[in-house]
Specification:
By secondary structure, the protein is mainly beta. Helix content is about 15%, strand content about 50%.
């Protein structure tokens, strides 16, 4: 034990000569320039010239002008010894009548792994110039971009595809029109719908209706999309000034496709009216019917409204719908406490793809359904006869783990069998935990011994609830998740050794601490002399300890 303490002490003393200094951190910045009414990013270097790792705990940049705005976008938090980190600075320039230059600054603070703390002032401030260049008033139009993706569809079919318009300016842009051109007579494309404006540094959506003709073989068509409009400040942008985009449209001949391919026309959304009292929340499941001989995967469900009386949103959905089967689309509606009685429309749309790859956009900008705000009923509560909760639903088997270790996220596996003639629904809920998916629709006859669901949690303990519902029965099950803690040692011998620590051992440790303090004091003035003093003191101290322990050893052998 004493040898370990001596070696550890020597290592501490040896490291003192390599202590990091705040002056070892070198911040390098340079002058930057950008066009008016634009946003750009610049990278500055942070050099760690010490033999110790450095952690950046704060970055500050100056904003000293009304002609631009400068902020920290990102920075490397950890910089290893003798390595270089980065600071990403965002500069947003406003409109100027002529070139404009103003000084700004950047500075950092942090600490070394050895414990040395460096403030903003101890590292220093780096200054740099920002120049905003006047561009004549038309360059900002190029900040309006169209973003599209390639599309695959069947011959003699109609699909709706959503694309985006991106505004990288700091001013709202109003969309006056969208122009679409294609290089083939096999397809007819129209703009079905588009947002009326794009907020600053944001994006908006537009929808194209694409109708294909019969083709003798697979055809590929190039489609180009352009946008025109004006900024809120009055500046107009033609289709030649904004940034257009093109995408490839593939039209597949029925005979050249894969066997049993599904068509978008094989899918149908079933909706119904939702009634809700003011201040209340209602949930309902709509259906998505897949009449194709191919599995369909739901990629995205959008539920929205244009009402000031309630808010409609998606409430989970079946991620996959088997061939010739029906899936569920969950909808949640919350009526405001001051909502007016009456009914208004809400909308639901679905985007997905078949197993073979064909994509579908259902109901264009959204299939409508009614939400009616009604007066709350004050009838006496009556216990419903069916369904009722029980511990067992005949024909429906769900076996889940009672508890499971979880480190932020993971997989939970369970066995499920639906031997009933009806479809069953499983909803996941809990405190401090989320599940993906949050809803399962289990068809009749479905069986799986290892069905998996991904779960996410940021707490040390959480509970996941499974709520299972079939035609005439409801039941619940629960899995408790916990974070595995490091177990404390149960070694009784080690505890006895700790309890039996003698006075001589404690005295030895106090003596060694006194020696360390003396040596460090000497070393602060003269490193070589300090090391010699340490060696001499340790040698004398070891001899004294050996003499003290000698008789004790003899008595122990008797």
């Amino acid at each position: 034990m004493k040898l370990h303490l001596i070696l550890g002490f020597l290592l501490v003393v040896a490291s003192v000569g390599y202590a990091a200094s705040c002056s070892s951190i070198d911040l390098e910045a340079f002058d930057v320039s950008l066009d008016e009414s634009s946003t750009d990013y610049f990278y500055f270097d942070v050099e760690n010239n010490s033999n110790d790792d450095f952690r950046v705990t704060g970055v500050m940049v100056g904003d000293t002008s009304s002609k631009f705005d400068v902020s920290v976008s990102r920075y490397d938090e950890f910089i290893d010894e003798d390595e270089v980190g980065e600071i990403k600075v965002k500069v947003r320039a406003f409109s100027v009548s002529s070139d404009y230059t103003k000084q700004s600054y950047v500075k950092i603070k942090g600490r070394f792994d050895s414990g040395k703390i460096c403030s903003y002032s101890s590292i220093g401030t780096e200054y740099f110039d920002i120049t905003v260049e006047n561009g004549g008033g038309n360059q900002s139009c190029s900040q309006i971009e169209v973003e599209t993706e390639n599309v695959t569809m069947d011959e003699d079919d109609v699909v709706y595809e959503d694309f985006r318009i991106i505004n990288d300016e700091d001013t709202r842009f109003y969309i006056d029109g969208i122009t679409v051109s294609e290089s083939s007579s096999y397809v007819d494309i129209d703009v079905d719908d588009f947002d009326s404006y794009v907020n600053a540094d944001d994006e908006a959506d537009f929808t194209l209706r694409i109708e294909s003709e019969n083709v003798g073989s697979d055809k590929t068509v190039t489609v180009t999309v352009k946008v025109r409009g004006h900024f809120s400040g009055g500046r107009s942008c033609s289709t030649s000034q904004t940034d257009s985009d093109s995408f490839t449209l593939r039209i597949e001949n029925e005979d050249s496709g894969f066997g049993g391919a599904g068509y978008c026309s094989d899918l149908d959304i079933g909706v119904s009216k939702i009634e809700i009292a003011r201040g209340e929340t209602a949930e309902k499941n709509f259906t998505l019917e897949n009449n194709a001989n191919e599995r369909f995967y739901v990629d995205y469900v959008n539920v929205y409204d244009k009402s000031g009386e309630f808010r409609a949103e998606s409430n989970g959905y079946d991620k996959r719908i088997y061939a010739n089967s029906v899936g569920l689309l969950g909808v949640k509606v919350k009526a405001y406490s001051n909502a007016e009685w009456g009914k208004e429309k809400a909308y639901i749309s679905v985007r997905g793809h078949f197993q073979g790859g064909r994509t579908c956009r259902l109901e264009g900008s959204g299939k409508s359904f009614y939400v009616e705000v009604v007066e709350a009923e004050e009838d006496e509560f009556e216990m419903p006869e069916l369904p009722v909760y029980s511990d067992f639903c005949r024909g429906l088997i769900l076996t889940v783990p009672s508890q499971k270790n979880l480190q932020e996220n993971g997989i939970v596996s369970f066995r499920i069998e639906n031997n009933t003639p009806y479809r069953a629904t499983v909803r996941f809920s809990g405190t401090g935990i989320d599940a993906d998916p949050s809803l399962l629709s289990i068809p009749s006859g479905f069986k799986s011994d290892n069905y998996t669901v991904r779960v996410f949690s940021s707490k040390d303990s959480a509970t996941l609830n499974y709520e299972i519902e079939t035609f005439n029965c409801m039941t619940k099950k629960t899995t408790r998740f916990y974070s595995e803690a490091v177990a404390e040692s149960d070694d009784s011998d080690e505890r006895e050794d700790d309890e039996d620590l003698g006075e001589s051992e404690e005295q030895d440790e106090e003596n060694l601490q006194a020696v360390a303090g003396t040596a460090l004091a000497v070393l602060g003035n003269n490193a070589v002399l300090g090391l010699l003093v340490i060696a001499v003191i340790l040698l004398v101290y070891s001899i004294v300890l050996a003499r003290r322990q000698g008789p004790v050893a003899v008595q122990h052998r008797k």
